[in-house]
Specification:
The protein is mainly α. Helices cover about 45% and strands about 0% of the residues. It has 8 helices and 2 strands. Helix 7 (about 150-165) packs antiparallel against helix 8 (about 170-189). The two termini are about 25 Å apart.
Length: about 190
């Protein structure tokens, strides 16, 4: 992570990288929509946002560049669980099986709302920008972003470390040392 932060800091210092706040946008999607930047790293939520808020902007989603060890991405997903104490455990289990089924997920893909968890259903994605984003879930080094009770605290500590680095308040080593302390404290509670 420190190597990546150092690389990104060099890009920011050179002017090649900006934050959405640097260009007066609330988030990366708005910066693309207002044509203030030429590239951002975002996910499937960009497609409907651009379609609804910036329908006249010509943009294109492409898979992330291949890194030094291969193609990878981070995918975000949802989970379906069945409460062990449900009054109707068989019905609850049947519902979870149906919701995650190939048939149901194919129907959801057709709406443009979400991608299927079945990789062979990627061909069902109609919008080319959605398809370019969805393909990231099939890369060999792609990992699922798991969420737990302290994920927000960990993400916040890392995000705040990066912000301190970008604002020139701390070096990469200082910022990540502070983040490590904050994360360790959060995890020990």
């Amino acid at each position: 992570m420190k190597e990546a932060a150092t690389f990104l800091l060099a890009m920011k210092d050179s002017g090649a990288l900006v934050t959405s706040a640097d260009v007066g946008a609330g988030w990366c999607g708005e910066a693309i929509g207002k044509e203030l930047v030429g590239f951002t790293y975002e996910g499937g939520w960009m497609v409907n946002y651009m379609r609804n808020d910036f329908p006249d902007v010509n943009w294109k989603a492409v898979p992330v560049p291949t890194g030094p060890v291969g193609k990878g991405n981070v995918i975000f997903t949802n989970g379906i669980g069945v409460n062990a104490n449900s009054q109707y455990p068989r019905a609850a289990a049947a519902f979870a099986i149906f919701v995650t089924s190939r048939l149901n997920q194919a129907e959801i893909v057709a709406t443009g709302f979400a991608y299927s968890t079945h990789p062979d259903q990627i061909s069902l994605v109609i919008d080319p920008n959605d398809a370019a984003i969805a393909i990231g879930g099939t890369f060999p080094l792609t990992r699922v972003a798991y969420w737990g009770p302290n994920t927000g605290k960990v993400n916040d500590a890392v995000s705040q470390a990066l912000e301190r680095i970008y604002l020139g308040e701390q070096t990469v080593d200082e910022a990540f040392a502070q983040a490590a302390e904050e994360i360790n404290e959060a995890l020990s509670q």
